[in-house]
């Protein structure tokens, strides 16, 4: 292991001879350097050998903490929260418990005077869950030993992967504040709650237990972790607040409570009452392993023959196929795996890569699901249109994965009507829109929000390369689409290929890129339908509106031209008559009601109008778990089924406004509302009432 | 002349009021109110070789009210017509920009402005000029004064006697409206008129009293001459039979300025009748001059891409088809260089006054 050579050589600035240097060479090196200088004596291989020793993983990470996401105090605070919450969610879901997680950030004052949260440098992070708890003996190692965990050796979809996270967070705390990690855990109401204070011995990578006692704890079951770390609390992009909000979007089955350092409490309620189906563990697929890994597996296997090794340690390799591979690799199927020579193993490896093997099973992945994404987006983001797309599973490098995309578009009905009241006449060069606003991309890997390194991420690149202009959204060259829009992209996989250890960006595999693009296109297509439909209604309205507005001006001008003695009312009336005959009169309204397709045309979408919600109503209305569909199948729910349920939900739900149960009538009303929305303040009085009720509807949730 | 004034204005005012009648009568018949506006583009002009003028064709476009694409323009047209009628009644003149401000307001019950920029109102005024067959001056809209004149000519301007021979080297600033009702030419004893592209060269000639020695009128429009300058040149040419010579830079833009003076512009083709001077001569700088007057090559400027494109366009215009002109432009393209009038100073500060123009006039070295 070459890495064992101690790397920093502070005392010598001259390049030392390589360790495998031969005798005469090192002799000449010694001679010349002795003649040339006295300050830096040359080092012999023996002396160097004396310095070469093992580096513990913990020591390595102490020096390279940026690799794990602790580069600066602000990011470190987020990473600590993230690791603790990820662990809680993984544990709850594996144990089949709907997670209730509380996150609390408190300012720790080092001096006497209290410090404002934005100025503070030290924080106490408390994360409490209702999970299965951790057995007493394991607590120290889980929280204070790096690379210790349950997830690394399994091919199973989970948030955490390596078993570094929470111990690294603890180590970071230990390094910056000297405080141990405090853990309370209880495995059930009848078990005792254990309180631990642990630290990590960075040399040995072993836990040091400072305190261990049984305590009384109000919670019947669960785990609480308290970390004290150096950090900076700042709101805005890539903040703890943003991360929690995004977590709640992708995990609508989680109830999240967040106590900010300012003492505020934010609640992210559970809007989806079913746990995501537990992902299944799979064996590695032959395409996905590297040569070194194959060698190791050959050594470690319990099988006695190569053929049975291939068939039992990999997925999608049948005994017949295993024989075939052995034959092609000119290897006896009955050979002992441990006796396979490296050269033969290499042939075997190459043969495997060229053999046609079925893609890995995909039922091991548990995507969020279209309905859950919809409800997550609807809950957290104000908008007029929401949609979600789950792609069928695909495979990269032998790992199955699923891409999901979502879109939330618009400003929300209550905000749409606001700015119009305070409008002032525009001066030259000014314009109405703050349309320069760019879309926001929220990225997830296995339900965990990714906040850093956006531009390096495959998802972000896919968003950029999608031609949003095809869907009626403006986009300048090489930029994000413009408009009030949030784009949601999630990758679920047994192994998400991150570009670095700190899990910030998804690597750019062609297969992944392709799936993301397809998902985005489908979402974009639905947005396009929505926008076009809205535009159609608006332009029809504008047509008439234009004439109404301009008739006033034209008549006034004519009147002045004629010296002010024109029967203006008569002229106006005549012109109005022509206008309404030219725009199709009342027929236009009806035609619009008919042509504007209902939510059936837009599967897995919600349209929010000033009057209410159209589309996947049960999601928006919070239907209890019993009514929602099983998400384990990645198949999309047939829209007819969905709308049938929607009707029932609409009928049973307490009516917040004069809503009619028949969905067709409802749709038409919604269309007319679109008209009103497009009105330039002219129909202000007509719109006001429904807008108010819509706000009320929202508040109810 | 003073009597003609109210009568003529009355005619324009009547035409403007007539637009309101179009709307009213269309409304009564439940028809879409429509104006016919002649198209102002290259596709609708033609060169009349007999008259030597660019003339406007017959193509017209309809501007209707009840058409989503045109409704706003129609409304704007009515507003501008109203403002113009107001000017007629008050007998005031104004600028394009003031018209824009006068007609700009926010439409009631909306956030929409009648006009957002002046770029919207300017073309409408031109539309009205063409469709009402009224000159901009007759509509009481003036451009900026951006021309100067000096020489043995006497004007009557608002009752003041202006003797352009007694105005020092600054001369008289040409008003934008020079119709007989506004500007009277009382006397002119000059032998010819020299229209200079650049103010700097005009200053040189004025300072050197070139006009006194050669008994001519010096006129400049500071670049592309505005309507006032062109119209004044035309009047002196027509009323006092002064030959007109044009002195411009040797580049495609200089050629075009000459052609505009001579046969009118594409955009204002409808006014060629009153402004073009088909007998105007191009005195310089010709692409043959650098050789003839031994200008060193290093005072030339390399033609850029735009220049070359423009020059090739000029080659295709009907009014540049005379062999001498084809030769002139091609010679410039072959040499790849353009020359400014100012470059003559390379030889001597007064080269233009003392050598160049005298020789040109003596040799009658000009292009038609």
Description of the structure:
The complex is a heterodimer of chains A (701) and B (368). Chain A has 701 residues and is of the alpha+beta class. Chain A folds into four domains: 2-53, no CATH class; 61-268, Heat Shock Protein 90 (2-Layer Sandwich), CATH 3.30.565.10; 300-354, Helicase, Ruva Protein, domain 3 (Orthogonal Bundle); 367-421 and 434-523 and 598-701, Ribosomal Protein S5, domain 2. Chain A is 39% helix and 15% strand. Chain A has helices at 23-36, 45-51, 57-63, 73-94, 139-144, 165-177, 240-250, 291-300, 306-313, 319-328, 342-354, 370-380, 413-417, 458-465, 510-561, 568-582, 585-595, 617-620, 639-652, 663-678, 684-700; strands spanning 100-107, 122-129, 181-186, 193-201, 206-215, 222-230, 255-259, 265-268, 385-390, 394-396, 399-409, 440-445, 448-450, 485-493, 605-608, 613-615. Chain A has an eight-stranded mixed beta sheet. In chain A, strand 4 (193-201) and strand 5 (206-215) form a beta hairpin. In chain A, helix 17 (585-595) packs across helix 20 (663-678). With 368 residues, chain B is of the alpha/beta class. Helices cover 42% and strands 17% of the residues of chain B. Chain B has helices spanning 4-28, 71-90, 96-103, 118-132, 199-207, 210-214, 227-240, 252-263, 272-275, 289-292, 305-316, 323-335, 351-363, and strands spanning 34-38, 45-48, 53-56, 60-64, 94-95, 141-142, 148-150, 153-157, 160-163, 172-173, 183-188, 192-196, 216-220, 244-247, 281-284, 301-302, 337-338. In chain B, the strands form six sheets. A six-stranded mixed beta sheet of chain B has the order 10-7-13-12-14-15. Chain B has a three-stranded antiparallel beta sheet with strand order 9-8-11, with no helix packed on it. In chain B, strand 8 (153-157) and strand 9 (160-163) form a beta hairpin. In chain B, helix 1 packs antiparallel against helix 2 and helix 2 (71-90) packs across helix 4. The radius of gyration of chain B is 23 Å and the shape is globular. The interface between A and B is medium-sized, with 33 and 36 residues.
